[in-house]
Design brief:
two-stranded antiparallel sheet; alpha/beta
Amino acid sequence: MNMHSARAAFGLDKLKTILGIPVVAIRWNDAIVLLNRLIAERRFTKVSFLNAHNANIACTDPVFAEALDDFLILPDGIGVDLAARLLYGAPFPDNLNGTDFVPAFLQASTTPLTVGLLGATRVNAEAASVKLAALAVQHRFVVIHDGYFPASQESEIVDRIAALRPDVLLVAMGVPRQELWIARHIDARHCTLPIAVGALLDFLSGSVPRAPLWMRRLRLEWLFRLAVEPSRLWRRYVVGNPLFLLRVVRQRFSRTPETARDSQ
């Protein structure tokens, strides 16, 4: 099932379109219920999250933007909340950032599931699997492969996923590679819910620190990440955040919030 049919099946007509990308405006608990229903009914649905960074990438990468059209997109971070305020007069109901939401969803899912992990380094993926198994003891977590493999190994990895056929497949390869990889290789034969999770496995493993809780509550986790990894992330945040807001302002003053994605 693609994003459009999932929306039709479950009445998800409350969308906010950010730079041409339709994002579901849904409460935290309702999103958990939705994902559980998709699994229970075995409705194949690709899931990703929109933040300022990947919205910027979609503006300049039409292949990535097209791939996102077939994902169920959840809102992640203060950037898209600011965009929703500017464009629609209200923020998203909840911040469903994957780092917090995905573990909470797994913890809240009472039916035993098989969860595949694909991505990060092998050490971090294994450590994340141990952490998740302690957090959600009802599920089985299986590390399929790390995220560092040549194209020649792809068919073997895809076959391994199909043999396992997990209910949930967590793909942690970074944006846009993880979404493009899911779009090109994963369908209903492989799993029910492939979820693009970014750095989740690195965070769960403890190798990348999270911001203190007070910073997360103030929506300043991006600032903490910038301080921890300035050389890698300065362009994403120092350049990217103002660019994202500029694009949103341009959308705001165009004809309609549903206008086509900024092509620049």
